[in-house]
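As noted in the main text, all predictions were made from sequence alone. Below is one such record, for Monooxygenase.
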Amino acid sequence: MKVTIVGGGIGGLTAAVAFHRRGWEVEVLERASEFTEIGAGLSIQPNALRALDALGLGDRLRSGGLAEPFAGVRRADGRWLFRNDVADLKRRFGHWATVHRADLIDLLVKALPARVLRPGTDVREVRPDGVVVHSGGTVASDLVVGADGVHSATRRSRWPDAPGPRYVGYTTWRFIVPPHPITGSVETWGRGERFGHLPMPDGRVYCYLMANAPIRSRTGLDQLRERFAGWHDPIPALLAAAEDHTVSQHDSYQLPELPTYVSGTVALLGDAAHAMTPNLGQGACQALEDAVTLALAVDTLGVRAGLVEYDRSRRPRTQMITRRSLQAGAPAHWTSPPVIALRDALLPRLPKSFFERSLVPAYTWTI
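Prediction:
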């Protein structure tokens, strides 16, 4: 049996490893000239670690250094809006890990034979019978997996009438700075903008910023330093330590819900199926879940029945998490001063169970 995977990011490579370990012939078509990612850290939450455990790779991330769960949210002046009980989260759900995205890609690439990887291959069309038309010719397979991201060529080809990704109104900057003393994984909310940081295993700090902005607008590092200059420590110092060439900026999109993730012998996974806002840190985690679930279902039940099972199990869960992710980040992007004042007064008074409702369904997944 052969599977062709369109897209060599985290979801696509995880699917490749999952199918390869089940004895399938695998081919990964990646438009970029190499298999890598730059510029950002990634929080691997307990559900994603369990997905990697299914491939025998989870302990390799754990050995690199475990991370703390998300500690909570502060105001721009440093006062807490809410705090999570990180010890309780670890006790209930297991481990977290933080990794550079490029290191996770490298881990997945090394788990595959070099012959299955085809960088520099631009996919033009995916047909329902498993034929993929690309810049180097065509390839026929028993199964095609579209793991080619938010602007998926696979989705456009097989779901031509589906609405495209929707810009949610804010853009995201990401960068990593040299070691700096910080306390855990924390996010700070302002008025239509926020700043988050979390420690990397080697002491460096992964930072991300989000702000309301017109689509495709671009803002430089000097402007960001000025914008966040009055925020609590260590935010100004982290921005001061950043270098222009390390900062990446991407607009934030959400994909409207698809009626199915399956078309003929083609399946979508990750952002191609359910692109979500980064507010819960679950985008890559859900792609990892998708990949191992798809390989298990198809290898166990056969292609047709396995695809039905994959869609039945993955679509409700991923679409629920997509909705909750959008809701979780919305208060950070409110701009009305009276509404912001109400937010800042109300959030510290809410019970911890209110915030856990967004988190628990994500963390409790098992294969």
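The first strand starts at residue 2 and ends at 6. The chain has a mean pLDDT of 95. These features were considered when defining construct boundaries for the mutagenesis experiments described in Section 2.9.
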